[in-house]
Amino acid sequence: MPHIDIKVLEGVFNDTEKERILLDLIAAFGKAAGGNFKENTSAKIIEIKSGSWASGDQIFRTEFGLAIKNDKS
Questions:
Q1: How far, in Å, are 12, 21, 30, 45, 60 from residue 67 at the CA level?
Q2: According to the model, what pLDDT value does residue 42 have?
Q3: Helix (H) or strand (E) holding 68
Q4: pTM
Q5: Which residues contact 6 (CB under 8 A, 6 or more apart)?
Q6: Predicted pLDDT at 4
Q7: Quick one: which of 4, 6, 25, 2 has its CA closest to 65?
């Protein structure tokens, strides 16, 4: 039924974190959609090579993703 793709920079999340992200994302969608959507939703993480993603005039690199992940402010 529904399928969710999430794109992240490679090297930012380890396997355990990716598993948690996927399961939490599916659970959140299931809660929002109601019914049996949690059991019928799939998701995948697509890792984008560092330097192969940009927005405006900024090239995103793994270091940028790690800085966001580690920001405690």
A1: 9, 18, 30, 20, 11
A2: 97
A3: helix 62-70
A4: 0.88
A5: 21, 25, 43, 44, 45, 46
A6: 98
A7: 6
Q: Report the DSSP beta bridge partners of residue 5.
A: 44
Q: Are 43 and 26 in contact (CB under 8 A)?
A: yes
The structure tokens 């599916």 sit at 26
d(C-alpha 9, C-alpha 63), whole Å: 9
- Distance, CA of 64 to CA of 62 (rounded, Å): 5
| Confidence class for position 63, pLDDT limits 50, 70, 90 | very high
Distance in angstroms (rounded) separating the CA atoms of residues 26 and 29? 5
- List pLDDT tens digits, range 12-39: 999 999 999 999 999 999 999 999 999 9
Rounded Cα–Cα distance for residues 5 and 37 (Å): 16
